[in-house]
């Protein structure tokens, strides 16, 4: 193995849009902190944007020891060229042994550009992260492989840094500590606006888009609903609670609801405060995507349904009677 002894520390990229960080960034700091503790190194974060110093302070509250901050009006919106240049220069200067990014559209673009340029290895969509203790210090990045039928642990032995992306909801953020102390290091942007070939002309929000990964409450339905129509009933409960509607793959495959609502191995990984599993049996491909929810309430007419093994509260009965009753109670309490 080459001598990589000058590469030390764990770096997490803090993704933001319009000055608001993606939760996955804080979750990755939580995962990164465990790796850094095992390796006895510092946890670093990188914040890029316009007027985003508050996020550098937040990164410290969520576990970073040192935050590199690069600000400028030309960095307001994500663009591959300047963001990757800044990150590459930082990696060159600071030499972290591990770099973590959210598996978002931006994180995938940025991590891919950097790994290609360095060049080094990048494990995408990791679901488990660990390290071999010194002297090997190898990152053990695990993810489903071979049509999601097995878990593969991928190592990057020959190159540094070792890089990985992870989806939102897979890892847990540390509790926010407002009194935590850390260092903020300002770094320059090596590219002026005139050197950047692309312009962001307009940002069009997807109006109907659901954001399951950031949702605090999810009301998810399965094949037990029997068709697309009962999803309206789930939407009523979700609206009453201020949550989003999720679904099992069976419903998506049947064309009852769009794929963006799917939770599980081939859908979203979620970690809400409250997850309703309604008419969902609890197949492993579904539970891998929601079992980390803080509180799970399952409603199923089959008392032996596997979902009850994951649920904190289980209601055995007909969902068509139970769901409207819960919605009515929620509305009554809010009135
Ligand atoms: P079912 O297993 O059919 O369960 C329906 C449940 O509804 C039953 O438990 C039944 O008792 C209950 N029920 C019926 N009527 C009522 C009623 N009136 N009141 C109360 N309860 C009722 N699945 C996912 O969800 N997400 C994924 O990302 C995913 N990825 C996959 C990837 C691969 C490679 C493979 C092979 C499969 C994947 N699956 C995924 C599919 C998964 O294996 C299951 O087939 C699917 O999750 C089953 O969905 P379900 O629980 O809605 O349906």
UniProtKB/TrEMBL annotation:
SMART domains: ETF
Keywords from the named record: FAD, Flavoprotein
Molecular function via GO: electron transfer activity; flavin adenine dinucleotide binding
Lineage: superkingdom: Bacteria
GO BP term, pick one: fatty acid beta-oxidation using acyl-CoA dehydrogenase
Binding note for cofactor: Binds 1 FAD per dimer.
PANTHER family: ELECTRON TRANSFER FLAVOPROTEIN ALPHA, ELECTRON TRANSFER FLAVOPROTEIN SUBUNIT ALPHA, MITOCHONDRIAL
Family classification: Belongs to the ETF alpha-subunit/FixB family.
Name of the protein described by the UniProt record: Electron transfer flavoprotein subunit alpha/FixB family protein
